[in-house]
Design goal:
This protein is of the alpha+beta class and 75 residues long. Helix content is 24%, strand content 20%. Strand 1 and strand 2 form a beta hairpin. The termini are far apart.
Length: 75
């Protein structure tokens, strides 16, 4: 039995959803306008520009805690 097989497409022109997600640049939260990020003893910290409080600043921690601090500080 002889079956016609379609030609193999070049993978560089593939437009699957996972390929699109991998090429998107990371979005940077606007909350970083109110915090300065720096390393202390090899760990990332975020210092509030208004009160100087040190919070976790590691990229894997997210920014919700920074938003919460900012909201409580401006009240």
């Amino acid at each position: 039995m002889n079956v016609d097989v379609p030609p193999i497409q070049d993978e560089t022109h593939c437009s699957s959803p996972t390929d699109v997600e991998e090429t998107r640049p990371k979005q940077i939260s606007s909350i970083w306008n109110h915090f300065e990020r720096h390393q202390v003893d090899g760990k990332w910290k975020a210092a509030c520009n208004y009160c100087g409080k040190q919070l976790l600043g590691d990229p894997s921690q997210g920014t919700k805690h920074l938003h919460n601090h900012f909201k409580s500080y401006i009240r």
